[in-house]
Structures are given as C-alpha cells and as structure tokens.
Amino acid sequence: AGNFWTYKGSLGADHWHLDYPHCGGIRQSPIDLQTRDVVVDQTYLSPLVFSGYDRVSNLFFRLENNGHTVQVGLNDKTMEITGGGLGATFVAEQFHFHWGAVDERGSEHSVNGRHFPMEMHIVHYNKKYGNFSSSVGKLDGLAVLGFFFEIGRFNEHFQEIIDHFGEIQFKTQSDQHFDINSIPMIDLMPARLTNYYRYHGSLTTPPCFESVTWTIFNETIEIAEEQLVEFRTTIFENDKSDGGVFMDISDDYRPVQCMFRRRLYASHP
Ligand code: B30
Ligand code: ZN
Question: Taking the complete model, does pTM exceed 0.90, yes or no?
Fold first, then answer.
C-alpha cells in the first residue's frame, strides 16, 4: 500500500488501481496494435515535424535508475515535435526503456499479439502548459513516441548510454543523477519515421493518467543481443544500501490493456 508499486507480486499491475484509481480506467496503455482494425488517415497523420533532434544538446543527458527503468532526462528543453495530427507543439522531457528478461518479451505495446524485446519512450509535454508536471494530468498534456527494438547489429549510439550503466546499477536517490555527454536524438531513432500508429491512452505506470497521445513507429531500432544483456543484468531495482538479494529490472512492462471503444489510427495502409 501507499505510494509504491511494482511489476510483480502483490503490488503488481493487477493491483495498481487500488492505490491509483486511474489505472482502472477505459483509456489505458499499452495496447495490442491490431492492424486489421486500423483506420488509415494519410492526410491528418502527416509526418511529424522534429525540431532540435539533430543537434547535440549543450547540456548533459541526465542518467537515472528510478527503480523501474533507466531514464534519461533532457535538460535543455530545445527538442520539439509538432504536426502529425498532434494539434499542438510538444517539448521533449525524458526518454526511458521497457525490456524483457528474454527476447520474446519486454515491449509494452505489441503488434497483432507479437511483442518485441525492448521499447523506448520519448516523453513530451504540451508546450502550452509550460512544463511536465503541469501537463501530466491534462487530457492533451503529453505526447509519447514509442519505438520497438529488434535484435541485430551492434548499435554504437546506444552504447554511449550503456557504457555508463555501471554508474546507475542501483536505484538513484531522489535528486541524484549522473550526467553524460548528450547524443543527437535523431541518432537514437530509426531512419524512416513516416509510418506510425496513433491512439489516445495513458501513462503505462501509476498514476496511469489518461493524458497521452501515443505515436508508435513501424520501423524498429536494431540493437545487439549483448547490448540488451547489459540492460538485463547490470541494472537493479534496489537501493545500494538494501544489501541481500539484488533484483534486476527486466520485465518492466505493463500487460496490454483493453481497447474498449477506442479507435487505432495509422499513417499508412
Ligand atoms: S510512459 O511513457 O507511459 N511509460 C511517467 C512518464 C511516462 C510514462 C510513465 C510514467 C511519469 O512521469 N510518471 C510520474 C513520475 N514518476 C517519477 C519518475 O520519474 O520515475 C513517479 C512514479 O513513477 O511514481 Cu517512477
Ligand atoms: Zn514508458
């Protein structure tokens, strides 16, 4: 009970709604993207317009292990997205990952029931609300971009982050973090960003606010098996002072939620 939740056991996803009522809502995330049921809208769902994503930030990436994911804070608030039917300008706040203990699971969203070994979320807030905390509870407050990973070639760009996992292997204390040199965000994303799915949903963790316009891209990001193994084996949910058994964060994904009366849109047939 209280302000605490996990992915497994008696405080797992089936019980989140008891302490966080929004988690029991009817517009929850993630979902299974069923391609048979998509509504294609190529006019409205034009390509997103990315600004500042191709530049190196003059501020550092703020690396953090919050006990349920590896999160990278974006300090300088210079990256923005607009267009693509978003209806507003959204500012990048942070990105983070959900991954599995084995290749067959880890992503939060799935496509026709198929999961991927990892999913990255780039979290943006609506510029008109000024900052993340003012946006997180608003219906049009957040835009999250989701990317699936597939096992493949070694990814040198993500290695720049993985190289610092030793600094964040244990849960970082609040207000504690580890600064690393920033990477142009475009290098962390797939080359083709024109094909995507769109729906309205929620944060995939408590408090599960239904404030997210979700964009999930078709093209995957390649990463080597040995790089995924670093996520699985070197990042722990425990405090350094815990002592005893350290638990890795793998399988930090929420099961897919019911679609109820929502529609899934796509930018392509
Ligand atoms: S997600 O992209 O839908 N997975 C939050 C942002 C994005 C997603 C999920 C949650 C979020 O900001 N949650 C509230 C903030 N957190 C603090 C934190 O940064 O780490 C509070 C919390 O969850 O209790 Cu953990
Ligand atoms: Zn997420």
Answer: yes
